[in-house]
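Lab meeting notes turned into a lecture example. A postdoc, R.K., suggested we walk through two folding results consecutively so the class can see how the record format repeats. The first protein's sequence and structure tokens come next.
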Amino acid sequence: MSRKNQHVVPHESGWAVKGEGNQRASSVHPTQREAIEAARQSAIGQGTEMFVHGQNGQIRERNTYGKDPYPPKG
């Protein structure tokens, strides 16, 4: 399994979970809540990030499930 950030994006059938850079959706869900849960589980399993996009396509939420450096740089 490759380590790709997970994106929750609008889809014609509801909401889709897509791995970063993928053309096709990993899964499609009727509600955004269900898509977020699927993306969260995938991101936790891979140790990557999850991005939640709004209806307009802009990122509205971002969560990291990998190892963040502590203390953060900058």
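The second example is placed directly after the first for contrast:
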Amino acid sequence: MSTDSHPAASDKLPREVWVVAAVVIVGVIMSILDTTIVNVALETLSRELNASLATIQWVATGYLLSLASVIPLAGWMAERFGAKRVWMVSVALFGIGSALCGLAWSAGSLIFFRVLQGFGGGLIMPVGMAVLAQTAGPKRIGRVMSVIGVPMLLGPVLGPVLGGFIVDNASWRWIFYVNVPIAVFALFLAARLLDASSSRADAGRLDWRGLLLLSPGLAAVVFGLSESETHGGFGEPIAFVPIIGGLALVVLFVLHARRAPRPLIDLNLFRHPSFSAAGCTTFLLGAALFGTMIVLPLYYQVARGESALTAGLLMAPQGLGAAFVMPFAGRITDRIGGGPVAVVGIVVLTLATVPFAFVTPHTPFGLLAALLVVRGLGLGAAMMPAMAAAYAVLEHAAVPRATSALNVMQRVGGSVGTAALAVILQHELRASVGGAVGGGGALQKPPPGVQQKAAAALANAFGNTFWWAIAMSAAAIVPAILLVLSSRRERQRDADEKRALAQAA
């Protein structure tokens, strides 16, 4: 159970916490950037490797599938082998996969190496978060999570910018080669600075049945969602069949986990009302964050005719707003708890998204940049405080498996949000301008003549899509309020128990 109260946020983080945070962030930045950096280069990869866009999209889809399938293993592996060893192996695998991707000679070889790369990338974030959470302890979790949250929110913004820059100025292979020196540096830091015993515990035997249910189930759901995005809707069998099958496997895993002595994901964690509320908030915020991260750049490209690099630069104010507010949000979280901070952040995020529902072909970029700064402030005050509140109610030993659960929630939420808003946007574009944009399920920049003639209709399609993004953000307010109430009750119960023990003594 959590500690009795939140201390003043003025006590400084110990040096060991900053050391671990520095090591983890190097790896996290690498893995998060790679999730988005490749998307900008898909058209170039299709041309250079003589593959159709339908085939080359598996460079992104295969990576997401391997990422989703390996995350549930993070908690057990950290307990069984130690977080340092698992983290270093995952970074090494990611670096080797990146080098092999750069050496790929065909679309098939590139897709295979991307899957290999994803197996490493999927463990970097959850294992790194577990190390940080255990090193910091519940009283400092807010500030520590705010540190790791900066690359989490900056990655989707900086990835397209870096990807566009590399594609415009160098070979596409450098999109992958750029990861190799970062991986080597991360391994050097980890070997010297991480504690080999961190997160070690009695992991028990691996829950093979749970693994064979949950990992394919999550992968199938993510695959179906990505295919719905590619094929323009959930009505295609290639989209809804994997989603239904994946959900069935997840349900079977839940039934199995309720009976298993040491399940892959400990569902008892969700008996904590605060953890359940934080997990739901994380899921919805993941949907809102990653969903809008596909719609916003496309508005700049499709409706306003800007390049991918320019669109990425125009998104930068959001990341700057998030990076600015996170240290303050972390300190306040450690003082009053993550729930109230998350509620305020989600309200700010929602209100700042509302004006995007009224965009026109001539909405000033300066106004949009100011709104994105405010939106970033909301994101920075919402995502990591909600996750910090989940850790604050757990025992130290429960952190590794809790990290797996929260990362699964965020990853699936992000996939749901991305697919849902992409499908809605494609529907709106077809309704507004017919087949001129988004033909065949692919969102494309229209020819200049079409873009100018259909500018108002294009902007209207994006505005209608943003209403759904607003709804996703607003929905997260409900579990965040429940998080505030449940955390308050648990702190009061802890205080009553300590008072009773003191009186009995």
